[in-house]
Write a structure and sequence with these properties.
The chain is mainly β and 460 residues long. It has two domains: 211 residues, Sandwich (Jelly Rolls), CATH 2.60.120.560; 192 residues, Jelly Rolls (Sandwich), CATH 2.60.120. The strands form five sheets. Strands 19, 20, 21, 22, 23, 25, 26, 27, 28, 29, 30 and 31 form a twelve-stranded antiparallel β-sheet that branches. The chain is elongated and about 80 Å long. The N terminus and C terminus are likely disordered.
Length: 460
């Protein structure tokens, strides 16, 4: 087993380091909870004419932004926003903003904004928005530098529906050139991962943060009536993202009276608590199983992503148990061409496009109840290079030495799956910041250094 030293990337006077999982962020800052009944420290703006004047009120302990009358749906006459004065410090352009939002208007889009260059005109910036008219969430990128270029990127979760008169939490992220969005209904558990993450190959420069509301142009003219509360910001020192996956065991069983290294069936494990790799032998069931893991990688706001922007990729699985003594280690295979995110067919058991990475995830004598990880950077970089603007990664875990022996004894590894309460598998990506993205002058927040390693195969 080879151990590699930590990786550091120096950009001017700022050093960005890989930090331990779960500690990549600095202390969260409360921007405002409006419990004092005022919005001191905020500056309000609007683009209202006939619907004005704007109404701004924090006296009830939450922040209301409203129009007096129905707002015209023309983009130049339908918005109210407010920016936090202290966010001109570049620290507040690199991190996560979290806000509780509510729209009491059927057409009123609401959400936080980051990196808004000119606060008096909501021009270039990133918008993390909820739309009750179409019942959806999206990230909008607005770049006034190139002809008022407005692009929208929607959360691919149709069951997440934003409705008016509901309180939701929106967490929007701008970490270097990585954009992310996580949403959940107030009072419900926070999701473990962002539901949307994209890379911007031409990231917008630093700017201020704030809150924003406007009327959907597809809606009838209605009054803007937005509420914001509990606004937090977390500075980030590195662009690290945990990518959830879909998981499936592909199985060679004796239903065809033979074990022939050909898949016979499969089992979706994405909502199950555990998944196994190896030989399963009992009086009622005999089979060999391999585990397929597929990851929908962060895409791009436009065009293919430069694979060199990916600094590291770490594949992590939690070993729940080992049954008896497996015939060998869990080997990691990778396919650069098997990039469909649909559930794996059983043919993935023998699919020749999966090539041996020469990496072993876990050995038969390794301790149970622990995470094991391998460095798969070069393979994920290959996926980015091959897949264009819609990249994905596919890995297969298997025991190369496994063979079925009829003795009513199983020899297998069991890993936790997303259906378990904790210790989910994941692909952790760290991106190299774009030097032109942002000046991190006052940040000075560096995490502790962590070691990464590649678990190389032991010589036979």
């Amino acid at each position: 087993m080879l151990r590699h030293p930590f990786i550091a990337v120096a950009l001017g006077a700022v050093v960005l380091m890989l930090v331990p999982l779960g500690t990549a962020r600095a202390e969260t800052i409360l921007i405002d909870d409006f419990n004092d009944g005022n919005d001191d420290g905020w500056t309000q703006y609007d683009g209202l004419t006939d619907a004005g004047p704007r109404i701004v009120d924090a006296s009830s302990g939450v922040y209301h932004l409203q129009s007096t009358g129905p707002a015209n749906t023309h983009p130049e006459d339908n918005h109210v926003w407010s920016t936090w004065n202290a966010s001109g410090d570049p620290v507040f352009s690199n991190g996560l903003v979290r806000v509780k939002v509510r729209s009491d208007s059927s057409g009123g889009i609401v959400g936080p904004i980051l990196r808004v260059v000119n606060p008096s005109e909501p021009e270039s910036g990133y918008y993390f928005l909820a739309d009750p008219h179409w019942e959806r969430f999206f990230i909008a990128r607005f770049d006034a530098r190139v002809g008022h270029d407005w692009r929208e990127f929607y959360l691919p979760y149709p069951r997440l529906r934003f409705n008016d008169r509901q309180d939701w939490i929106i967490e929007g992220g701008c970490v270097d050139n990585l954009l992310s969005m996580k949403v959940w209904l107030d009072g419900y558990p926070e999701p473990e991962f962002p539901q949307l993450a994209i890379l911007d190959p031409e990231p917008l420069p630093y700017g201020v943060l704030g809150v924003y509301s406007f009327i959907n142009v597809s809606s009838d003219p209605v009054r803007i009536d937005a509420t914001f509360d509990d606004i937090y910001f977390t500075p980030e020192a590195t662009a690290m993202l945990r990518v959830p996956g879909t998981y499936c065991t592909v199985i060679d069983d004796d239903s065809d009276s033979v074990f022939d290294d050909q898949g016979d069936t499969f089992s979706d494990r994405s909502s199950k608590p555990a998944g196994g790799v190896g030989e399963s032998d009992s009086e009622s069931s005999n089979f060999m199983s391999r585990l397929i893991a597929r990851f929908d990688l962060p895409g791009s706001t436009g065009g293919p992503i430069d694979a060199s922007l990916l600094q590291s990729a770490t594949l992590r699985f939690f070993l729940e148990d080992i049954t008896n003594m497996p015939a060998g280690p869990v080997s990691v295979f990778h396919s650069v061409s098997s990039n469909s995110m649909v559930m794996s067919p059983w043919e993935d058991y023998e699919d020749g496009s999966f090539a041996d990475t020469e990496l072993d995830l876990v050995q038969p004598a390794d301790a149970r109840q622990a995470y094991y990880e391998v460095d798969v950077t070069e393979f994920v970089q290959a996926d980015y290079a091959a897949d264009g603007a819609d990249p994905s990664s596919a890995f297969r875990l298997q025991i190369n030495q496994a063979a079925f022996v009829e003795d009513n004894l199983s020899h297998r590894y069991v890993f936790t799956m997303p259906g378990a309460e904790t210790n989910h598998p994941e692909l952790v990506l760290t991106f190299i910041p774009e030097p032109s993205t942002i000046a991190l002058g006052g940040l000075g927040v560096l995490g502790l250094v962590a070691c990464r390693w590649r678990r190389k195969k032991h010589a036979a």
